[in-house]
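Reply to dn_fold:

You asked what the input looked like. This is it:
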Amino acid sequence: MPRILAVADEVAEQLWTEQVHALDVDLILAAGDLPFDYLEFLANALDRPLVFVPGNHDVDLSGYSNVRGLWTKAGVPVRWPGPTGAVNADERVVDVAGLRIAGLGGSIRYNKGPNQWTERQQARRARRVSRLAGWRRLRDGRGVDVLLTHSPPLGCGDEPDAPHRGFECLRGLVSRLQPGFLLHGHIHPHGVPRPDRALGATRVVNVVPYKVLDISGARDET
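and this is what came back:
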């Protein structure tokens, strides 16, 4: 059973010190809106893989390609602006540390910033993730263990103000993928406990600023 360190939105000062070495984890999952050098520090200090999705305050990471270690954008060699060595799972399905992770970054659109989507746009992206997960399941019989998002589903841990409203389409995606966990950020606790929620059999966890979780991997059709 892999143990993960999930982080989002707020830097946990105690983790940006030698104290982080006390954590025994197999994987780091980042749900957005954190300094990339913080994420790089965690990955290097723990010597564990890092999978992330971008938040609405992160830079636009779309359009980048990596071929044999060379990053390009629009066919031109460029410097990758994301965290070094990390796996960007946005709109993808990836297998890391024994877990199958589907990712969908960004927030509801509320201004002209990056990584913001209308409900319709995010629903289109969610359908792509669903198709990718379906193809993987047909190939090897394994389902998705973790759905990693920046925003929560609508009405499931979100807030009523426009920037922090969740996505309705995430409810449908959870219904289709039936992951064991949906891990999200975006909603700051502000000192108020944020209890885990459930969508069917899926445990919905607000990981701001961080959570350590044991997650069953290698889920199959049973």
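Helices lie at 36-46, 119-140, 169-177.
Hope that clears it up.
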